[in-house]
Every structure is written in C-alpha cells, then in structure tokens.
Design brief:
Blueprint (H helix, E strand, L loop, with lengths): L1 E3 L6 E4 L5 H20 L2 H17 L1 H12 L3 H25 L3 E5 L2 E9 L2 E5 L7 H12 L3 E5 L5 H13 L7 E3 L4 H9 L3 E7 L2 H10 L7 E5 L4 E6 L4 H13 L9 E7 L2 H15 L20 H16 L3 E4 L14 E4 L15 E7 L2 H9 L3 E2 L1 E6 L2 H10 L4 E4 L11 E2 L2 E2 L7 E2 L7 E8 L6
Parallel strand pairs: 5-6, 5-8, 6-7, 8-9, 10-11, 10-16, 11-14, 13-14, 16-17
Antiparallel strand pairs: 1-2, 3-4, 4-21, 12-13, 15-19, 18-20
Helix pairs in contact: 2-4, 2-6, 3-4, 4-5, 9-10
C-alpha cells in the first residue's frame, strides 16, 4: 500500500498492508495486554495520556508537516489539528472523571455503588481528513477507560497513523495496549470478524459505516459507535450583517477545501432583495479565494483535496447537478498546477429537477432559494443525514424553531457549521451516526457501568 502527497504525487508511505495473520496477531497482543492494563490505576493511565500529549506538543512541527505531506492540508490547518490533539488529552481526562466517576450512596446500612468495567479490545477506524485528531478522540478515552486498542488509520493516511502509534510508545504505553494495523476496508473487515473485538469505533462515510453495521449483525455484544458524514444545511435569514454573514457561510462551506464532515453542503437563502445581494457577494468573495499548495510562498485559502481521484469525483458531481438543471454561479475547475487542486464551486439548484442527498467531500456548495423561513426549514429537513446545521442571521425564535425541527447533532447560530468544541458532544443521527456522539461524550461508550448493592455485614 502507498500514500502519496496530493500536492506533488511523491510517495509518503509504502509498505505491505497487514495480512490476516498480522491482524490476528495484533488482536492477540491486545487481548494479552488487556487484563494488566485494566488493572493499571487510573492515575497511571492519566499520566501516560499526559505524556503522549507532551510528546506531541514537543514534536508538533514534525506531525504538522507529515499531515500536510500526506493529506494536503494547508500549514495553518495542520498546525491547528496538532493543537487539537494535544488539548484532547486533558479535556478527556476531565470528562472521564466527571461523567464516568464512581458513585456511592448509603441508606440504612446498604451501600449502592456504581463502578465501571472496560469493554475489552476495541477497534478504532480512523478517517483521512483529521488523521491525528479524530482517531485520538476515540483512542484516548478508550485507553483511559482501561481498554486495549487495535488501530487502523485510513488507507489514505497510514504515515500519520504510524506516527501517532509511535508517539504512544514514546509516552510509555505498555507493549500490546495499542496495536497498529494498516490497509483498506478488507483489513478492517478481518479485524471486525475477530470474535475478541468488543467495540468498533468508526469515523468515516455512511456507506462504510453501513457495511460495518451489517457485518456486526447478530453480535449485539459488540458496541458500535459510528461517526459519519452529513449533507449539512446552513440557512441565511434576515436580519443579518451582510459582510459577516457571507464570511460565515464561506468558512462553513470551504474551510479545509470542504473536507470536514461538518462543512455546509447546502445554502438555503430567503429569496428577497437582501438575500439575493448576499448571494451575489458570496459568489464574489468565494471567487476571490486563492487555491494553492501547502508550500506556496503566499498562503492559499484552499489546499488540494486528498487525491486526484477525489477531485475527479467532485467534478463529476458538479456535472450531474448541472445536468439536473443547476445553474453554475461559480464553476468548480481543476487547477493546471495539480490534479488534486480545485477552485471552489457554487451551484444554484433552485430550479433543478433533483436535489442530491449525499455527502460530497470538497469545495462544492449547493444553493436553494426559498420564499420564507418555513420553506427553509422544510428544505433543510429534506435529507437522510443529521450531522450539522446552522442559522446565519435570523432571530432567537427562529433558532429555537430550528432546534425543535431539525434532527441534527450539531446546530450553530451565527457561527460556521464547522465550529465545534472538544468539550461538547460531536456526532449526528440518521445517516450521520448511531446515537454515539464522540467529542467529550466519547467517554460514555468506552466502558460499562456495574451496579452493586452492598451490605458489608451479613445479618439475619
């Protein structure tokens, strides 16, 4: 298997994918390490997590450069991801103690207790778009809870996965507690089929998540946490500040070249003079965005998507929208500098025969003009996904109506849809998740509560 720098095609990582025997050996090692690790005091597990964060902080530039080389992130974006990796450690420690701390209550000499047991060996399947941060959002709480982990990074980001695994070793994590396997979906399938896997934590697209769900049919004992994508709406409604509104929308749609699961995919705008003027300004603003490569001397606004093949699929999506009656307010094009580098696109689908309800991972935004806020809500609801949504402008009453009307896990007001805090849950419903939000709430599915009624002295 190989990973290549999307900016220049150079090989970043190359080695054979994990064989079925190597997958089994990884689960063997994690299983053997489980008993000792779960008996390791929480304070010691916390110490190792903090040592990992310290190691990453001390080698932040190295990791950021690797993220940039392997998945094409612009330098500032990669540096921000590394900072999030570091911050996640202390936040997760705090959340583990606060949300999963031991409970005890005594009534008439009978003690009621809650303690927690780890699941066992868990499989973490990481994505390419945040190849260090998002796997860490599952690995850190899993380790703190006393689980051992088998980790398969995205096949598009194996070098970052290897770097992260080595960092845990440098932090003093005992042998076998975190085992790395490399490869594509077939490697993941082999790991999931191992009957010793007690939990599967997945971040990625809906179709892969659905396949995992099907594979685990008949195994209710395996905890499955799916963090999947979205077809995220952002509604523009009066009153709004013109300049701030269009900047918020542009950031929502095009940050990280549109390769965040929370990026706005659909802009729904009230079709009045104010809304029309905002759309015109948005097209002008986005049209001025500079696509570029991470090592360009002048900072770009958008970097490349993860592969040239991904760029080709996005261009095909745009063509399908145009064939369905869409109007290109701003046509997405491929840069002659790099086959993975795209200019941003904005397609007005108001008069189209069909609004595509799928997740496209790149700098491409649908626009739908509507008569009023009630219609805007109905359009926003017309999706099988339920990850993120946003309101730009509008009123508190409108925001509260959205909170009641939209089945989403993330709902922002006057901030980009991509704005997320590690202190909050992160996940969705419908085709976006299975009611197991990550973020700070990942601690909730990494162990099982054990309820006990205790009478210390046996009496008649």
């Amino acid at each position: 298997m190989q990973s290549r720098n999307p900016a220049d095609g150079s090989i970043v990582f190359e080695q054979p994918a994990s064989s079925p025997a190597e997958v089994t050996a990884a689960v063997d090692a994690a299983s053997e390490a489980q008993e000792q690790w779960q008996r390791t005091p929480l304070e010691e597990r916390e110490r190792i997590v903090r040592a990992f964060a310290d190691y990453v902080a001390g080698h932040a530039e190295s990791l950021a450069q690797l993220i940039t080389r392997e998945v094409g992130k612009l330098r500032a974006d990669a540096a921000a991801e590394v900072a999030a990796v570091v911050a996640k450690a202390e936040i997760t420690i705090e959340m583990m103690r606060g949300r999963r701390g031991n409970l005890e209550h005594e009534v008439r000499g009978v003690i009621s207790q809650v303690r927690y047991r780890p699941l066992g060996v868990v499989l973490v399947l990481g994505p390419f778009n945040f190849p260090a941060h998002l796997p860490g959002g599952h690995i850190i709480p899993a380790l703190l809870a006393g689980n051992t982990v088998v980790f398969k990074p995205s096949e598009l980001a194996p070098a970052v996965g290897q770097w992260i695994t080595n960092a845990w070793t440098e932090a003093g994590l005992p042998s076998g507690v975190l085992k790395l396997i490399q490869g594509d979906g077939e490697v993941a399938k082999a790991a999931i089929d191992d009957q010793r896997i007690a939990g599967v934590f997945f971040t990625g697209g809906y179709h892969a998540g659905k396949a995992i769900h099907r594979q685990l049919a008949g195994r209710p004992e395996v905890l499955l946490a799916l963090e999947m994508g979205g077809n995220n709406p952002i509604i523009l409604a009066p009153p709004f500040d013109h300049d701030t509104a269009i900047q918020t929308i542009a950031t929502s749609a095009f940050i990280s070249a549109g390769q965040r699961c929370t990026c706005a995919r659909r802009l729904i705008a009230i079709d009045d003079p104010e809304g029309q003027a905002a759309l015109d300004s948005l097209v002008e603003l986005v049209g001025r965005m500079k696509p570029g490569l991470p090592l360009d001397p002048i900072d770009a606004d958008l970097g490349p998507v993860v592969t040239a093949q991904a760029a080709t699929r996005l261009l095909a999506t745009q063509e399908a929208w145009l064939d369905a009656g869409g109007w290109a307010r701003l046509t997405m094009t491929r840069s002659p500098r790099c086959n993975a580098l795209l200019t941003p696109g904005i397609i007005d689908m108001t008069d189209a025969k069909l609004l595509h309800d799928d997740e496209w991972f790149g700098p491409l935004l649908q626009v739908k003009r509507v008569a009023d806020f009630a219609e805007a809500i109905n359009v926003a609801k017309a999706t099988r996904f339920g990850l993120a949504a946003g309101l730009v402008g509008g009123t508190k009453a409108m925001f509260e109506e959205l909170r009641q009307s939209l089945a989403v896990g993330i709902l922002n007001w006057n901030l980009p849809t991509t704005g997320a805090s590690s202190r909050l849950p992160f996940g969705g419903v419908g085709h976006s998740g299975n009611h197991r939000p990550a973020g700070s709430f990942a601690v909730d599915f990494c162990n099982d509560p054990v309820a006990s009624m205790i009478q210390p002295t046996l009496s008649e």
